[in-house]
Amino acid sequence: MTHIYNFSAGPAVLPKEVLAQAAAEMLDWHGSGMSVMEMSHRGPEFISIYQAAVRDLRELLAVPDNYKILFLQGGGLGENAIVPLNLVGRKAQPATVDFVHTGSWSGKSIKEAAKYATVNVAASSQAEGFCGVPPQSAWKLTPDAAYLHICTNETIDGVEYPFAPELAGDTPIVADMSSHILSRVIDVSQYGVIFGGAQKNIGPAGLTLVIVREDLLGAALPICPSAFDWSVVAEHESMYNTPPTYGIYIAGLVFQWLKRQGGVAAMEKRNIDKAALLYAALDADDFYQNRVAKAYRSRMTIPFFLRDESKNEAFLAGAKQRGLLQLKGHKSVGGMRASIYNAMPIEGVQALVDYLNEFAGR
Ligand code: PMP
């Protein structure tokens, strides 16, 4: 049988080992006689799963003690509203929120935040077709902003921050890391809030991760739903309402898998190699094209175009025949996209590279 490699942007490939373990534990988790899906979130079995997931994630990302790790629902788009609902109250109203606009996802965040705050787009790469991150020296920041929002990996545009911004004042940085969290070493203390949907590098859709510095809690606007008020969620250890228990369980297995792989630093090394292999094939001649400036090219989500777009359907059909799935680009930009998250082995990238070369007649 053809080996299948899944390049979906999300929901996305998960480690086979994790899926096999979940299958083996599906009907009876550790002799409890229950599936994780059937357990009370307040029972000792699930509490132990939850605590291990939080502990392992804290270790993997070296999350400092003064940060809370929260498991919510609502996805990345939900956070676009939940973030302002929690943070604009830190300043006199109407508060201003700063954004750096580097692609589709930060664009969506800007639109949503405008419902709750005055929005200042401090910098944008839109005029250049979202092919990079404007240099921090060119950002026109608001001195007293409630926060600065950035999307550190633009999933559709394939633009990744190679740096963490450093701000002079005490404006917290909010980072949407949905599509590259746990793929590279970060210094959590440089951010006020990190959030992401789970369905790329963490686990199944339906689980949303928020890492928030404790001093930012407690400023939610009165209209903020209690289930999305981070201080309420933190106080209840992510169990103010019923959390997405199965998603947390799978995320926990992914965290254990990451630790067995050597942690985030080891993963980052592999991700650098995987991305280099793929970009080399895309850059070999002008048959394919990736339009992102080299310094800002994503290691995780790699859009590319065929020079002759009339070959798109043939390219996708041939890919499918070879077990290379879900390579079609996002509908808003067209072309192709290969998402090569942590769980994509280098063999999968090599299989794609072999096909790219074959299709280009090299
Ligand atoms: N932000 C980024 C960077 C994303 O890639 C996505 C989903 N692709 C979202 C936000 C939206 O996430 P969700 O669909 O979970 O709301």
TrEMBL record:
* Positions bound to pyridoxal 5'-phosphate: W105, T155, D176, Q199, N241, T242
E.C. code: 2.6.1.52
Q: Which cofactor does it need?
A: pyridoxal 5'-phosphate
List the gene name: serC
Q: Please report the name of this protein according to its UniProt entry.
A: Phosphoserine aminotransferase
Subcellular localization(s) per the UniProt record: Cytoplasm
List, alphabetically, the Pfam families matched.
Aminotran_5
Q: According to its UniProt record, which protein family does this protein belong to?
A: Belongs to the class-V pyridoxal-phosphate-dependent aminotransferase family. SerC subfamily.
Quote the catalytic activity from the record: O-phospho-L-serine + 2-oxoglutarate = 3-phosphooxypyruvate + L-glutamate; 4-(phosphooxy)-L-threonine + 2-oxoglutarate = (R)-3-hydroxy-2-oxo-4-phosphooxybutanoate + L-glutamate
Tell me the ranges covered by the Aminotransferase class V domain, including all copies.
4-352
Q: Kindly list the organism's lineage.
A: Bacteria, Pseudomonadati, Pseudomonadota, Betaproteobacteria, Burkholderiales
Enzyme class comes to: transferase
Q: How does it assemble?
A: Homodimer.
> Could you confirm whether the keyword Amino-acid biosynthesis appears in this record?
yes
Q: Which InterPro entries match?
A: Aminotrans_V_dom, Aminotrans_V_PyrdxlP_BS, Pser_aminoTfrase, PyrdxlP-dep_Trfase, PyrdxlP-dep_Trfase_major, PyrdxlP-dep_Trfase_small
N6-(pyridoxal phosphate)lysine PTM positions read K200
Q: Which GO terms describe its molecular function?
A: O-phospho-L-serine:2-oxoglutarate aminotransferase activity
The pathway that the record names for this protein is: Amino-acid biosynthesis; L-serine biosynthesis; L-serine from 3-phospho-D-glycerate: step 2/3; Cofactor biosynthesis; pyridoxine 5'-phosphate biosynthesis; pyridoxine 5'-phosphate from D-erythrose 4-phosphate: step 3/5
Keyword list, A-Z: Amino-acid biosynthesis, Aminotransferase, Cytoplasm, Pyridoxal phosphate, Pyridoxine biosynthesis, Serine biosynthesis, Transferase
PANTHER family this protein is in?
A: PHOSPHOSERINE AMINOTRANSFERASE
Recite the UniProt cofactor note for this protein: Binds 1 pyridoxal phosphate per subunit.
Q: Which domain of life is it from?
A: Bacteria
Function of the protein: Catalyzes the reversible conversion of 3-phosphohydroxypyruvate to phosphoserine and of 3-hydroxy-2-oxo-4-phosphonooxybutanoate to phosphohydroxythreonine.
Q: Give me the residues that bind L-glutamate, please.
A: R42
